[in-house]
From TrEMBL, chain A:
Signal peptide: none annotated. It comes from Halohasta litorea. The keyword Ribosomal protein does not apply. SUPFAM superfamilies: MetI-like. Its main location: membrane. It is found in: Cell membrane. PROSITE patterns: ABC_TM1 (PS50928). Keywords: Cell membrane, Membrane, Transmembrane, Transmembrane helix, Transport. Pfam families: BPD_transp_1 (PF00528). This is ABC transporter permease. Belongs to the binding-protein-dependent transport system permease family. It is a multi-pass membrane protein. GO terms for cellular component: plasma membrane.
TrEMBL record, chain C:
It is a multi-pass membrane protein. GO terms for cellular component: plasma membrane. Belongs to the binding-protein-dependent transport system permease family. The keyword Transport applies. Keywords: Cell membrane, Membrane, Transmembrane, Transmembrane helix, Transport. The chain crosses the membrane at residues 43-64, 73-93, 105-125, 132-151, 185-207, 228-246. It is found in: Cell membrane. It comes from the Archaea. This is ABC transporter permease.
Amino acid sequence: MHTDRRYQMLSLVAAVLAWQLAVGVFGVIDPGVLPPPATIFERTLALLGEQSFLGHVSATIERTLLASVLATVFGVSVGVLMGWNDTVKALLGPLFSAVYPIPVIALLPLVVLVFSTDSNALVFTAALGGFFVVMWNAMNGARQIRQLYFDVATDNGATSPITIFREILLPGSLPAIFVGLRLAMNTALLIVISAELLAGGRGLGYYLWVSYQTYSLGDIYATLVVIAAIGVGITYGLRWLGDRLITWTPAETERPAEHTFR
Amino acid sequence: MNREPPKAFNEPDSKATAMAETSYEASATGSPCIRARGVGKTYSSRSSEVEALTDVDLTVYDQEFFCLLGPSGCGKSTFLRILSGLVSEYSGEIEISSARADGGSVTNMVFQEYGIFPWKTVLNNVAFGLKMDGVRKQRRHERARSYLEKVGLAEFADAYPHQLSGGMKQRVAIARAFTNDPEVLLMDEPFGVLDAQTKRNLQTELLSLWSETKKTVVYVTHDIEEAITLGDRLAVMTARPGGVKEVLDVDLPRPRTRGSIPTDEFTTLRERVWELLSDEVQQSVTR
Amino acid sequence: MSHARRRRHTSTRRLGLHLAPILAVVLCWEVLARLAILNPTFFPPPSVVVGVTGQLLVEGPLLYHTWVSLRRILIAFLIGATSGIAVGLWMGWSRPVRLIVNPYVSLFYPIPKIALVPIMFTLLGVTETVRVLAMSIAVFLLVAVNTMGGVRQIDDAYIDAALDNGAGTLALYRDVLIPGSLSEIFAGLSLGLGVGFNLIVVIEMLAAKSGLGYLIWRSWRLFTIQQMYAALVMITLLGIVFIYGVDILGNRLTFWEAE
């Protein structure tokens, strides 16, 4: 496993080196189209030193986090409830199944009309996208908890729904919830960036679009690097956190599958 | 320390022949702890009805180790779940005399597939029942630790179940049941999935815990030798719908450690039970 | 006979139970909008939306924009899905391929794919190819990662059994690797569709003169809310067809998996 990771790093480093040599030294590709990695890296560092750019970074991160928190709170509670209680599932399931295929970003104009401010509309839209992902995963997580554990809980005197939720439902579906959380944060980031591209004002998406409109190639690449870093940070950071928090699952192989719906 | 079988005082002459008596309501004494009268249970789905239990009459006495023996699918687990309260709809009457005044739980169950939570440490699993009863953390951990020590898992208190073997998991479940200190211990084929050696060790441990604590035990199994090794009395059940075919006394001396059980009496009883069961097994297979 | 009829009977029943909550919400919306408790400018009653959608389909540009979006989605999905499944299977089976390709896939996988669009426009121009390519990249990455995961979770015993029974490479893929990872492949397809639909809509909003995304955006700009709803209805229908089509296909193909 460790040697695997080393080889993979090596593969990446080799590619970056080749790119640097091809563009920077031999000039195989026009650096006006594809700048060498060192140049992109320099530009990224320079941008990160600018106060105004940091404002865009923090706007995007703030919106993504806010949307993810909303998505998680509502997604986990609704999802676990649906996984536990068949009546709730019968009532809400069809509604969510009907709304789910709508690409959330298509709702942005409508949401903007309802919320008067762009920023709130943006967070709401992103939260909506993330909500579905967390909800399906939490629901499936709760449904796969074996009946045995509920029997044990009842037999040992766990009677109130709150106790059942705290002792069985929440810990039992936590691995699935974490998968959902990771997907939800990625969805939220995608929608936040998309909405910023469209609605503008503040944020990395907006900065990216302005750079594109003004044909500032260096800025486009640098912004992309920062956005990529956020995406990578979310995905691998949450995976790391999940492995730390959920110490009771046996192995990687028993990780819950990523669920979209149903 | 070692508990005499209750009936030994009353019928000093009873030997292997007496055990085979088809006394339906067997001859043990003591005050009755569980009384079941005409208990039945029918599971109904939209399309069909399945009668799982029919007309079960049983009396289990205080501090008795009582085994329920039957072919698979005969409803013995259902009966246990009715006793535990997990199944609340049934016909007939169940009476469990609750002698205790401290308000603790009356029954507690040990499930076949361990039933210990994978997301809790061994210690928290053992202390779970006490937590549900609102016992303070320090006190419940203390009690849980003392029983973990008794089942030899003291150093695994902070481990998670996936780090334990099957036998160790079932020890955790047993430790939890004794920590809860119920009046009646319900055990649903607790050693059914374990290998022979582990099974034997756990049986010995269970017997020693039982003789220490004097619990009433209702023990479900399909293993004849296990029922004879463990029980004071055993009830042979019929194939589905399950009912009590016969109740037999197991008049073997305790403590029943390996080698201390008289081979002749054991074999005679085993043959007798095997005969009673084989018809039922045949029926449940051909069904 | 009677068994089959009973089954059909319960499935209609189930469909009815499924539709009931949806109909209830639609009915509430209708009533609230009619009573002007919901602002009918922003939330026109469903009956009006249906009417406008029908009218625009027949007389207006709606059918054309729907067709354009459908074509983009279909091409992008087919390219992304086939390449994703192929690369994913290969990565899952062969360790050298995994070592070489996986770092790039895992690096690009978490990047919000929309951020790649401005670069692609800059390098390749604002063309139809680029619009489709952006969505197919998203589908490709999600499908490849899931397929690889699917292949790697296959029990070694199945592979050993296949090899022991004389399976060659082709047979190994056809009889073990593909069926063994099918449910993960379909999970990837489903995720890819979700992301891909969003992408195509954003791209059409940003940089296209046709497609449902463009229509939604223009309707919003011109404040023709009813037309926007009509376009939303059509994109939702496309979403339902694709997402549940893939879902149903997946369930059919993995019928042997226990519930």
